[in-house]
Amino acid sequence: xxxxLANIFWFVRRYALRYKWWYLSGIAAxxxxxxxxxxxxxxLQKALASVDPVAGDxxxxxxxxxxxxxxxxxxxxxxASRLLLFxxxxxxxxxxxxxxxxxxxxxxxxxxxxxxxxxxxxRGTNDIQFVRALAGYAALQIFNLAVALPLNLWMMxxxxxxxxxxxxxxxxxxxxxMRKASI
Length: 183
Description:
Elements: H1 2-16, H2 20-50, H3 60-105, H4 109-114, H5 117-159, H6 161-182
């Protein structure tokens, strides 16, 4: 496990950190994406309350316009967040492929007699694609979880603290079960 983490950190330092501004921009876009996602239900609540004949504010069309505008903005910012986090993964993959190919070209003929072409092809395709998944998709999921979980818990706790805590119990238990099952 420690060796695997050391390899991941080596890869991040050598290949992914050069795209830190992409990642930071992607994280900022994820923050906006999640903020808009939790804001839309608030406008829905206002729209539903506005149709109440006694206590309504009569601004139904305004609240609907806000929801439509936020939804359209969400499409744009969510797409941007994906691009900002997936492009560094693809670029890291390309850099790693170039380094791999240059390394293979530097080997002497005895290496090629002892190593199968299939093994070289497997490492040159499958293994490097997994690295791209780490640098792109896994980064997106890690950053998204780090942003979405606290934001949604905060919004849920504004509605009901006891219900939020009740929802956390199975989440925490599932985390422990997954941890034990993956060891």
